[in-house]
UniProtKB/TrEMBL annotation:
Region of interest called Disordered, as start-end residue ranges on this chain: 1-46, 61-95, 116-144
Ranges of compositional bias, category Basic and acidic residues: 1-22, 63-76
UniProt domain Hyaluronan/mRNA-binding protein: residue ranges: 15-100
Superkingdom of the organism of origin: Eukaryota
InterPro entries linked: HABP4_PAIRBP1-bd
Pfam family, one: HABP4_PAI-RBP1
Polar residues compositional bias, start-end: 118-129
Lineage of source species: Eukaryota, Fungi, Dikarya, Basidiomycota, Agaricomycotina
Signal sequence annotation: none
Name of the protein this chain belongs to: Hyaluronan/mRNA-binding protein domain-containing protein
């Protein structure tokens, strides 16, 4: 049986080849929405306008909230230690801990390293931190 004979067969004539076998239309119209059916260009203008309205409302709420509320004072918690509250001995111990942290063969104690961060922080700089900045070279010249 040739292909033309098969196409003329009654069973083949009953089948409409323009429709898919599942019955779903592969050519869904997306109304200008693009490949993934995300919405049309007409929807885009409406969505942009809605987004701008939302943003304006949020800005208005922020302005109203700032006018009615006084700025809160920053409270110091007991856990936040500044570099000024540490003694020189504690700072040196913390520097040594950080210097030798990776040299130990056993577990690395991240909590101890975090606790020692106040000793090595340079913010805000103190007088002794300024005099010991890394990479700073002091050159003394003799008068000729």
């Amino acid at each position: 049986m040739t292909r033309t004979e098969r196409a003329a067969y009654p069973r083949a004539l009953n089948r409409d080849r323009s429709e898919s076998r599942t019955g779903l239309d592969p050519n869904l119209r997306k109304r200008g929405a693009g490949n993934h059916n995300w919405g049309s260009l007409a929807d885009e203008q409406r969505l942009e306008a809605g987004a701008l309205d939302d943003e304006n409302m949020e800005l208005a709420e922020e302005v109203e909230g700032k006018v009615g509320v006084e700025p809160a004072e920053r409270s110091r918690s007991g856990s936040s230690a500044t570099s000024n509250s540490l003694t020189e001995e504690e700072r040196e111990r913390a520097r040594q801990l950080r210097k030798n942290a990776f040299k130990k063969g056993d577990q690395l104690d991240l909590a101890a390293i975090a606790r020692s961060s106040a000793a090595v922080s340079g913010s805000p700089p103190t007088a002794d931190n300024i005099s010991r900045r890394p990479g700073q070279v002091t050159v003394e010249c003799e008068k000729l």
